[in-house]
Design goal:
Layout (H helix, E strand, L loop, with lengths): L8 H20 L5 H8 L3 H7 L3 H18 L1 H7 L2 H21 L7 H27 L9 H8 L9 H18 L2
Helix pairs in contact: 1-2, 1-4, 2-3, 4-6, 4-7, 5-6, 6-7, 7-8
Length: 183
């Protein structure tokens, strides 16, 4: 797979378009073909396969890209919301990413996939730590809460059905969890 840092600007742009389109297409249909992703991205299949020789390679890169964007969004989310609302917003986004990952089923169960998923834990934990620190400074959560405990607690959110009733249940569960974090 080509190193994005050494690619020409048009190749980097194609790669970013592929990742965004693949995210959207896989969210709609986890079984989408690479050819359907290439078509929606407005590129030829050869271009897609040059960047991502296998479906698994594309799915893993989409997952890494999505998690990276989410982790990088902490400062913006905190700037746009109160700390506790930022925590809510961020976990809602994480839930959406994890649901997509779960819908991909077997695509994320190889040894390479497990390495990628495991590698996402430290940055996600650090992001949750940033959110908790902001909440703590604002007096919205009690001090000393372990970010990994919060991730485990909030994991109930992505286990709710992906439906209006499931969204309502996820909202209720989030508020129950946040209630347990308060001072």
């Amino acid at each position: 797979m080509p190193d994005p840092a050494t690619q020409r600007s048009d190749a980097r742009k194609n790669r970013q378009v592929i990742l965004q389109v693949a995210h959207d297409v896989l969210a709609e249909s986890p079984d989408a073909s690479l050819n359907s992703i290439a078509k929606r991205a407005g590129i030829g299949p050869g271009t897609l396969y040059r960047h991502f020789p296998t479906r698994e390679a594309l799915i893993l890169e989409v997952y890494q890209h999505d998690i990276g964007r989410l982790v990088d969004s902490v400062a913006d989310v905190l700037a746009a919301h109160t700390p506790l609302d930022a925590l809510r917003q961020w976990f809602t986004s994480l839930t959406a990413y994890v649901r997509i990952k779960h819908d991909l089923g077997e695509a994320l169960h190889s040894a390479a996939a497990q390495q990628v998923v495991s590698a996402s834990w430290p940055p996600v934990t650090a992001a949750v730590g940033q959110l908790l620190d902001a909440c703590e400074r604002a007096g919205e959560v009690r001090p000393g809460i372990d970010p990994t405990d919060v991730i485990m607690l909030m994991s109930c959110l992505w286990r709710t059905p992906d439906s209006p009733d499931g969204a309502a249940q996820a909202q209720r569960l989030m508020e129950l969890a946040i209630g347990g974090l308060r001072p």
